[in-house]
């Protein structure tokens, strides 16, 4: 069954919701849907109190190190950490409280060519059980292509059944943002969700375009329950009106009830 997965997106040290692919690396500017007055720890503690697991903290550009560590310290081993992760710093983030590190850009050279040897080095450093491969992508004429550098640069790696099968030995989970619809609250990429459900070889989280609670049921249906869903800009916790955070928590408790002994 599909599970709701929480998120904390960090930009310039603040919790924000931005429109996917609009972040300019040169200026640091992005099209923004929401800027929180609450610190990262507020969201991390909220997720911890509500028993939400498998959520992710994403550093969008520089200036987010302190904010990310604040979130990790507030919910030790309860959040995955992505954004600027590489072989040299991955272990440090795990020691700081991340349950997993999330990687994309480090897996490619500057021209977007996949570098399997770098993934081998990461696995040697921290072990596959602590790695989430972020295969966030953009739609192309042939399907979907992994995008790096805040989803601005297409790589040579396609999101296919073969790709997921080949990479499954390198990770504990996959994370896939549909960059073309991320932050727009116009609906999930249904074709991509269906394919991910068919191709899933590991726990899988999809993010991008979710606009209401109904999308949890839709993703569950389309993916055969094989894909979890992150709701960002539509969530009332982030100033949205389409989905109530409390309802998402209730969904998880009903779908994955905790039974006592």
Structure description:
- The protein has 261 residues and is an alpha/beta fold.
- 29% of the residues lie in helices and 24% in strands.
- The chain contains eight helices and 14 strands.
- It has helices at residues 40-49, 65-74, 90-95, 116-126, 161-167, 190-199, 214-223, 245-255, and strands spanning 4-5, 7-11, 14-18, 32-35, 55-59, 79-82, 100-103, 131-134, 137-140, 143-148, 153-158, 173-177, 204-207, 227-230.
- A hairpin with a 2-residue loop joins strand 2 and strand 3.
- The relative contact order is 0.15.
- The mean pLDDT is 91.
Question: Which descriptors would you attach to this protein?
Answer:
single chain; alpha/beta; TIM Barrel; three-stranded antiparallel beta sheet; 8 helices; globular
Helix and strand layout, with pairings?
Layout: E1 4-5, E2 7-11, E3 14-18, E4 32-35, H1 40-49, E5 55-59, H2 65-74, E6 79-82, H3 90-95, E7 100-103, H4 116-126, E8 131-134, E9 137-140, E10 143-148, E11 153-158, H5 161-167, E12 173-177, H6 190-199, E13 204-207, H7 214-223, E14 227-230, H8 245-255
Parallel strand pairs: 1-14, 2-5, 5-6, 6-7, 7-8, 8-12, 12-13, 13-14
Antiparallel strand pairs: 2-3, 3-4, 9-10, 10-11
């Amino acid at each position: 069954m599909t599970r709701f997965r929480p998120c904390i997106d960090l930009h310039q040290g603040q919790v924000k919701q931005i429109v996917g692919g609009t972040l300019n690396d040169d200026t640091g500017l992005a099209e923004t849907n929401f800027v929180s007055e609450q610190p990262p720890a507020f969201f991390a503690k909220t997720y911890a109190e509500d028993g939400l697991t498998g959520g992710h903290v994403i550093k969008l550009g520089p200036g987010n190190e302190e904010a990310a560590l604040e979130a990790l310290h507030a919910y030790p081993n309860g959040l995955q950490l992505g954004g600027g992760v590489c072989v040299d710093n991955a272990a440090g983030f795990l020691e700081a409280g991340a349950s997993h590190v999330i990687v994309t850009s480090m897996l490619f050279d500057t021209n977007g060519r996949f570098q399997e040897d770098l993934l081998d080095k990461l696995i040697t450093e921290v072990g596959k059980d602590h790695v989430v491969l972020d295969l966030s992508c953009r739609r192309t004429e042939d399907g979907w292509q992994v995008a790096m550098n805040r989803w601005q640069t297409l790589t040579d790696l396609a999101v296919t059944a073969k790709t997921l099968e080949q990479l499954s030995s390198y990770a504990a989970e996959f994370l896939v943002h549909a960059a073309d619809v991320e932050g727009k609250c116009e609906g999930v990429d249904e074709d991509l969700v269906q394919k991910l459900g068919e191709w899933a070889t590991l726990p899988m989280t999809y993010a991008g375009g979710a606009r209401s609670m109904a999308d949890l049921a839709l993703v569950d249906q389309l993916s055969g329950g094989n894909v979890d869903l992150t709701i960002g800009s539509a969530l009332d916790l982030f100033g949205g009106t389409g989905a109530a955070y409390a309802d998402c928590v209730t969904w998880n408790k009903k779908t994955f009830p905790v039974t006592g002994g």
